[in-house]
Amino acid sequence: MLIVNTNTIPDKEFEVLGIVQGSMIQSKHVGKDIMSGLKTIVGGELKGYTQMLEEAREVAMKRMIEQAQNLGADAVVNVRFSTSAIVQGAAEILVYGTAVKYK
């Protein structure tokens, strides 16, 4: 399945099937959360959080693609990501786009 963040696909005409989305709320182990808090004092990448968000994005994408496949889509266009903190140490990743079927 083609996933793009553009509104169109070159040389393709399609019909819109609807909005699809996937989300994931991911949390980090409390011990790692404490260590990340200490890391903010000296600066640098918080690798545990980077990994947490990468995992959550992957799951959210899979869920969005599954919704699109259930609609019979060939592609998802205009894909966007959003994130928000739910509680300390947990974040939601939301991915959404428009499912389309080629004509």
What do these coordinates show?
The chain is α+β, with helices and mostly antiparallel strands and 103 residues long. It has a single domain (2-102), classed as 2-Layer Sandwich (Translation Initiation Factor IF3), CATH 3.30.110.70. Helix content is 36%, strand content 41%. The chain has a 4-stranded mixed sheet.
Class by SSE composition = alpha+beta
Average pLDDT reading: 86
| Main beta-sheet strand count, sense and barrel state | 4 strands, mixed
**Mass-distribution shape:** elongated
Mind telling me the CATH superfamily name? Answer: Hypothetical protein apc22750. Chain B
Q: N- to C-terminal separation?
A: 15 Å
Summarize the entry for a quick read.
This protein is an alpha+beta fold and 103 residues long. 36% of the residues lie in helices and 41% in strands. The radius of gyration is 17 Å and the shape is elongated.
